[in-house]
Amino acid sequence: DQHDFGLVGLGVMGRNFILNVADHGFSSMGLDTDPEKVSALKEEGANVRVDGTTDAAAFVAALATPRKIMLLVPAGKPVDAVIETLLPHLEQGDILIDGGNSYYADTERRITYLEGKGINFFGAGVSGGAKGARRGPSIMPGGSKDAYEHVRTIFEAASAKVNDEPCVAYMGRGSAGNYVKMVHNGIEYGLMQLISEIYDVAKKGIGYSNEKLADLFTEWNKGELQSFLVEITAEIFQKKDDLTGKHLVDVILDKAKQKGTGKWTSQNAMDLGIPVPTIDSAVTMREISALKDQRVAADKLYHTPSIGNDKPDAKTLGHALFFAYIVSYAQGMSQLAAADEEYNYGLDMETIAKIWRGGCIIRASLLEDIRKAYDKNPKLSNLLLDEDFIKTLKTIEGDARIVVQFAVASGIPVAGLSSAIAYFDAFRSGNLPLNLIQAQRDHFGSHTYERTDREGIFHTEW
Ligand code: 6PG
Fold this sequence. Notes:
By secondary structure, the chain is an alpha/beta fold. The protein is 55% helix and 8% strand. The protein has helices spanning 12-23, 35-44, 56-61, 77-86, 104-115, 129-135, 145-158, 176-205, 210-220, 228-236, 261-272, 277-290, 292-301, 314-343, 349-355, 366-376, 387-410, 415-427, 434-445; strands spanning 5-8, 28-31, 50-53, 68-71, 95-98, 120-127, 138-142, 161-162, 165-166. Strands 3-2-1-4-5-6-7 form a 7-stranded mixed β-sheet, sandwiched between helices. The chain has a two-stranded antiparallel ribbon with strand order 8-9. The longest helix has 30 residues, at 176-205. The model has no long low-confidence stretch (mean pLDDT 97).
């Protein structure tokens, strides 16, 4: 009567995920150093085959071989600490799955370290927050394909479903799972920033009340903008504060925290030489938000422009958001395609879009269109080159410009939206002014240049 599945780290995510697995008929065992968390699991799991312990040896001994052990502990040192705790008890062929937001290079290091001991280690991004973990997340596993076969049925059962298809699939070799999850979070940062800018334009620029904003986002969630983040945004505008009776959103401090995944996406995109400016600006805006004291001081020192005259209507706002949504996914997907080449992951872009359609934070009906684009052309270098997206973008780009113009004229910061337009405009410019940069480089540093009219490398004594 050994257990099918083990889970280390019985915080909210861990407890919810192990209960989800147990609900699907897999007998499960949890491990946590905190006895209260173990009791909480046993209580909540009273009706399913789930047990818990604070003892690592007992935990490992209770699992059927090859052992399938998932770690849901904070990224960084805690993951290494848990590995060291388990290691003396594990046997060749056992499988360790890191379900946290671990940095992909850490996963590579752990794979190599554990390979030497005969243990299969793999990183599996898990998205969907606490509710997703309980009712069905999107899962992005990467590592040894053979090892994945041992956990596949468990993950497929526990994951979200879209048209009966599980939102989990083998992503690729090595750290592919953590890498895909990292870029998922980069896109998440981008979409959240864009929504907050549209909120700012609608509220400060046009005078929308929270009630009207709730209606607007509710309406949007029925159309092309249908997505988890738009849906929860509508709910947020309706929520009243228990302490003051005011709208809760209005009493929340405007400093956004971050745990690193968005920043890593930007950093790694820079390393790959792939532009993801909308994700970059989302990270930058969280950094600017943290400078609250300086912002408040500067607010008094500068004159705020008066609100522009040409106020965009709701439809124009929606088009602008949809435009920038598409551009955000396009940037993230282009980064994944480049990372696939650089790290030899073996990613399949259509599969990624497919498993993101449900369960995860960036789930959106748009992902079905993205999936179709990669189904038509698996080697598509950028979504902006897909003929269906070209049609869509052509009809809404004008509205995105209207919103950016209005925001800039009114002094409302729209770093994400304007970066999306700038990226789009640069991407569709057959000629950019960077010939001048090459001339300058050659002028001051003899860095040479290429020509448009003949082959070769040239240098001029300017
Ligand atoms: C998810 C989320 C999850 C986490 C974010 C928050 O997919 O379920 O992405 O992993 O909530 O990483 O990130 P920040 O704290 O950096 O905003």
